[in-house]
Amino acid sequence: MIVESPDPSAVDRLTDYWVDLATEQRDHDSHLVAEGNRAEMRERIGRAIVSDNVRVARYEDDGIVGFVMFDVELGSLATVRTRGLVHNIYVEPAYRGEGVGSELLAAAERELADRGVETITLEVMAGNEAARRFYRQHGYDAHRVALEKPVENDTHSKENK
């Protein structure tokens, strides 16, 4: 397996993978619409490729089998640490469990470290225990927890006002 920067011609393949990823995340209560975001993600992935913020895993005989996107956080507020962000790790189902995701994550971490980040952040759906376990095995711990509730619930009903 080779992990490398993709050629711009890979944008459609990576967009297909992102749509597959977003579709899978719906099983874990993601609010993203997979196909409805295809065009926007194609643009984002294209910019990430040009900015060297994508790595792909490739097997010589099978081509690209997964990808990871990442970048350095450029927030408007001053922070005590420079953060790198890892986005959208995806591995084709047939290649899961073979270390592809680990290699992609390691490549993103190395690149972010080379760019001077001190902390790496990523998001995972709370209900995606397999992904949470994967990241814990790679040293990631919860730092911030997002809480949500639907607007229509018992605390907002007329009976409770």
What would you say this structure looks like, in words?
This protein has 4 helices and 5 strands; from the N terminus they run E-H-H-E-E-E-H-E-H. The mean pLDDT is 91. It has helices at 11-25, 38-50, 100-114, 129-137, and strands at 2-4, 54-59, 63-72, 83-91, 119-122. It has a 5-stranded mixed sheet. The chain is globular. The protein has a single domain, classed as Gcn5-related N-acetyltransferase (GNAT) (Aminopeptidase), CATH 3.40.630. The chain starts with a strand and ends in a 24-residue tail after the last helix. Helix 1 (11-25) crosses helix 2 (38-50). 32% of the residues lie in helices and 20% in strands. The protein is of the alpha+beta class and 161 residues long.
Summarize the structure.
The chain is an alpha+beta fold and 161 residues long.
- Identify the CATH class: Alpha Beta
Order of helices and strands: EHHEEEHEH
Question: Please, how many helices?
Answer: 4
Query: How many angstroms does the end-to-end distance come to?
Result: 60 Å
Topology record:
Layout: E1 2-4, H1 11-25, H2 38-50, E2 54-59, E3 63-72, E4 83-91, H3 100-114, E5 119-122, H4 129-137
Parallel strand pairs: 4-5
Antiparallel strand pairs: 1-2, 2-3, 3-4
Helix pairs in contact: 1-2
List keywords for this structure.
161 residues; alpha+beta; Aminopeptidase; five-stranded mixed β-sheet; globular
